Amino acid sequence: MYDVIVIGAGTAGMSSALYSARGGMHTLVLEKQSYGGQIVVSPEVENYPGIAKTSGFAFAQGLYEQMLQLGVEYKSEGVTEVVLQKKGFLVTTEERQYEAKSVIVATGLTKRKLQLPLEETLTGHGISYCATCDGAFFRKKQVGVNGGGNTALEDALFLSQYCEKVFLIHRREEFRGEQFLVEQLKQCKNVEFLMPYKVVELAGTQQLKGIVLEQTVTGEKSSLQLDGLFVAIGQIPENQIVAGLVELDEGGYIVAGEDTVTSVAGLYAAGDCRTKEVRQLTTAAADGAIAGVHAIRYVKELDYSYIE
Predict the structure, then answer these.
(1) What positions carry a catalytic annotation?
(2) Contact 4, 20 (CB under 8 A)
(3) Helices marked H in 100-167 — which ranges?
(4) Does position 304 have pLDDT exceeding 80, yes or no?
(5) Which of 32-41, 93-102, 193-202 comes out lowest in average pLDDT?
(6) What is the model's pLDDT at position 308?
(7) What is the pTM of this model?
(8) Which of 147, 148, 158, 244 is the most exposed place for a label (fewest CB within 10 A)?
């Protein structure tokens, strides 16, 4: 039995494993894809305290190596189920089963994609899913924001401070986001609404050069030159494996506060998979540290002697 099993090897997951191992816990990290999470696609990271500039890959690689040096076990296995037992948790992967006294869920989320050719190739090369992460790289350039909810509206407002021109592209004739944000955007001279349009094609080979738009009523197509496109059409938390075990909110996020404590004793949620307001690299690392410390305390205070 492991003391702590961490599900997910993004910044939050690896940070929690690092703290857990430093606390003397026998720790296992399970990750269905490659370690690093969403940050690995960012060519430049400039908003992490103490590191003036690095690449997302370099940041993730350093955290991964630091974690292993502390004795953390890492396995490339996708978790399919987490079950609460009398003594801890049973974690099932696609290959085998593991037992743990405590579990930290750091599964992150998936940004909803446009599902267009070249999207994966151009991610990090003009295509972004985080305005606050990458907006400064497009200073005095022409960008688009695709979406109609609060995230898209807030992204457009944020980018209007840096960019020469911001096109807000939405497939409907009305925004889903809050009206006061819309009114703020109307006051921005460098923001233009493109409605009702949808993005149907991306232009560029190694760097985004522009997009093709389709008018959703008439079907008419037109081209638009852009240096960057920020996609804000929704996000999907990866919490299916604990959906029947722990409390989730309407959006599918694990209900947990800044203490990362969930509705199940011994199970913690760190990073983008939990309910939170700010989703940044620094807050992911902070969540990991907090979850790791809580898991250490929980395991040390366990007493199974009353269970037959």
Answers:
(1) 130, 133-134
(2) yes
(3) 119-122, 131-134, 150-160
(4) no
(5) 32-41
(6) 44
(7) 0.75
(8) 244
